[in-house]
Amino acid sequence: MPIVADLIDLLNEIAPPELALPDDRNGLSAGSPRQPVKHLVLALDATAEVLNAAPAGALVITHHPRFYQPIRNLTADNFYTPLAALALKKNLALFNAHTNLDIAPDGVNDHLAEIIGLTAPQIVSVTHRCPTYKLTVFAPTAAAEKVSAAIGAAGAGQMGEYRDCCYRVAGRGQFRPSANANPFIGKRGELTSVDEIRLETVVKHFDRPRVEAALRRAHPYEEPAFDFIALDRTENFGLGRVGTLRVETLNTPVKFSALVKHVQKTLGSVGLLFDGDADRRVATAAVWSGSGVAADALTGVDAVIAGEIDYHRAEILRQKNVCLIAAGHAASEWHILEVLRKKIAAAMPTVKITVAEMPRELRGNIGIKNWKRRPESNW
Q1: Each residue of 198-249: pLDDT tens digit?
Q2: Domain range spanning residue 146?
Q3: ω into residue 140 within 30 of 0, thus cis?
Q4: Per-residue b or e along 181-214, where b marks 16 or more CB atoms closer than 10 Å to that residue's CB
Q5: Strand order in the sheet with 39-43
Q6: Domain shared by 65 and 203, yes or no
Q7: Which residues neighbour 331 within 8 Å (Cβ) at sequence distance 6 or greater?
Q8: pLDDT band at residue 369, thresholds of 50, 70 and 90?
Q9: Mean pLDDT score, 55-60
Q10: What is the pLDDT of residue 374?
Q11: Are residue 21 and residue 170 in the same domain, yes or no?
Q12: Cβ atoms 265, 365 nearer than 8 A
């Protein structure tokens, strides 16, 4: 049976903690890493409703941290006291992945861009620049194919739209096993020369541990010869996505009024806010899950779809003549729970997974029906 630590390892592969913003809160906040996991609950927040509904002993994985600030007391008037008490009483483990899941490839922003209909999306605000590595490994000729396949399956050799990229050259290697060695080829104390293949490929920063582990498992040598060399080329990670808007059911470029309805329908927004000319044609759009959209960084876009936009950022975007849609914080992020469910189910099919309902958001009449021209004040 999987334990909490196994799920944490999996989540850390999906959303590496290294990608979290400074001062963010991520990881295990209640329970034990050694706790067995029969039932898993996925939610945006560890609310009282979610914790009450969770089976005793379950692991609750959320996007937002429950205890963002340190709890200085457990007095009756502290909002967190009953939540902490409930988690302890029911022996619940609480884990969250916040900005690292927003930023990660195939994370919240990437899926929001896909849902809205952005093609070839690019990062709006780069938060991390991580090195790419060249991996060189030497393997006996008979084992080269097995080693190459193993490191490729672990993520090595990815270059744009190409996979399993590598270069091979034949040569001869030599070694002398010590008296304490356990050589796959040759004898202790004797100089041995072997026909080998030199494999060279590229490895992304966050794939390196997995690739090295796969290499060691597949390689027949007790001490395989390999090295990782950092390249000048970096891989960028960040928040927000911007790209060309393509919606199959709508004419291109998309009218802003049609885009508002599309966002409301696809994200299930109940309190959507917007600002812009109804007839404005939107060819390029940006998405930003949750809050904190980088208004200053957005240039050359026709519309922005965010979870929420505060007054001052909205004013900056208005001055740039950018149409605005605030779909709701939860509505812009809730879709990631189904993505996580599928990934966890594929890796750990014995764990029963429940996805909590979307949290309740402020509701309002978005006023699309009678919207004919740019409203003077609809925020």
Answers
A1: 999 999 999 999 999 999 999 999 999 999 999 998 999 999 999 999 998 8
A2: 130-235
A3: no
A4: eebeebeeeeeeebebbbbebbbbbbbbebbbeb
A5: 27-30, 93-96, 59-62, 39-43, 352-355
A6: no
A7: 267, 268, 269, 270, 272, 307, 358, 361
A8: very low
A9: 97
A10: 46
A11: no
A12: no
Answer whether 278's CB lies under 8 Å from 255's CB: yes
Tally of domains within the chain: 3
- From its phi and psi, is residue 336 left (phi > 0), alpha (psi between -120 and 50) or beta? alpha
> Contact, 121 vs 110, CB < 8 A?
yes
Taking the alpha carbons at both ends of the chain, their separation in whole angstroms is 51
Whether this model's pTM surpasses 0.70: yes
- Considering the domain architecture, whether residues 109 and 93 belong to the same structural domain is answered as no
Contact 37, 1 (CB under 8 A): yes
On whether residue 343 sits in a domain, the answer given is no
Strand 93-96 vs strand 59-62: parallel, antiparallel, or unpaired?
parallel
In angstroms, the CA 81 to CA 75 distance is 7
Sheet architecture: strand order including 284-288: 167-175, 192-204, 118-140, 225-245, 284-288, 303-306, 323-326, 273-275
Cβ-Cβ contacts under 8 Å for 84 (sequence gap 6 or more): 30, 67, 71, 74
**32 and 91 belong to one structural domain:** yes
CB 64 within 8 A of CB 97: no
Fill in the DSSP letter of residue 118: E
Helix (H, G, I), strand (E, B) or coil at 238: strand
178 Cβ neighbours under 8 A, 6+ residues apart = 188, 189
Half-sphere exposure of 360 (CA within 13 A, CB side): 5
Residue type, 126: V
**Which pairs count as long-range contacts for 175-180, CB under 8 Å and 24+ apart, including other chains?**
none
* Nearest in space to 275 (alpha carbons), one of 324, 213, 313, 239: 324
